[in-house]
Design a protein that fits this description.
mainly alpha, two-stranded antiparallel sheet, 9 helices
Length: about 240
């Protein structure tokens, strides 16, 4: 614990420096999430306008350079073109703001030992590592790795009856920000299951229960690893 001087040479405890760092990180990552949601909503509105005009495309396509070239080439009347251009401008503005936030996050991901350590978990990149640390914070506030899973809302609800006990849907009672980051990491890991330590587990589950539920199972494993990584660093500090 750090201390600071107070009066005639006496020392007083200084708390909150690491908490302040986490709060600053959380401010950045949650703003990035808000912008991501805004961009998705603008893309959904644009998609609805195009569908109304008889033009079919996926929402994801509207965020790509190929989709933009397709948009530019559409024969739209003046009113619809103005609507489309306004939506595209909003999508570009939020994308630019997200990019600026990521330029602030990436140096932190290279310099903070907790973030560097989190990136050793397969599927976790610099930006997702920032989201994980921002939401988990000081790992010493948890006693077990399962508590981080519960914090994320990725723990399934247990349905009990007189004769049986079975798992139901996800509780989703925790942090949606942490849940998003863990699922992102799991989906990234699923792209190359042959290189992932959870690859065999993921493929077996995918064949049995589908890719989304298999990814959520991997996300729970990543949550536990993140806890152990951060707890080990806290213990060594």
């Amino acid at each position: 614990m750090a201390t600071g001087s107070h009066g005639g040479g006496l020392r007083r405890p200084v708390y909150g420096r690491r908490v302040h760092d986490i709060q600053r990180l959380r401010d950045l990552t949650r703003l990035r999430q808000a912008l991501r949601h805004d961009r998705t909503r603008w893309a959904q509105r644009l998609h609805a306008i195009l569908h109304q005009e008889g033009w079919s495309c996926s929402r994801g396509q509207l965020l790509s350079s190929t989709g933009r070239r397709w948009l530019d080439g559409l024969a739209l009347d003046r009113h619809v073109r103005a609507l489309v251009d306004a939506h595209v401008a909003m999508i570009d503005a939020t994308t630019q703001q997200m990019a600026e936030l990521e330029r602030q996050l990436r140096p932190l991901a290279r310099s903070d030992r907790r973030l560097v350590a989190l990136q050793q978990i397969y599927g976790v990149g610099p930006v997702v590592a920032c989201h994980l640390l921002a939401e988990i914070g000081d790992a010493r506030r948890f006693r077990r790795a399962e508590q981080v899973v519960r914090l994320s809302g990725l723990d399934p609800v247990v349905l009990e009856s007189a004769d049986s006990k079975r798992r139901g849907k996800l509780s989703k009672q925790g942090s949606p920000h942490l849940r998003w980051a863990l699922v992102q990491a799991a989906q990234h890991a699923a792209r190359r299951p042959g290189s992932s330590p959870d690859g065999d587990h993921y493929l077996a589950l995918r064949n049995r229960i589908g890719s989304q539920r298999a990814a959520r199972s991997t996300a729970r494993k990543i949550a536990k690893r993140a806890y152990h990584v951060l707890a080990a660093l806290e213990d060594a500090a």
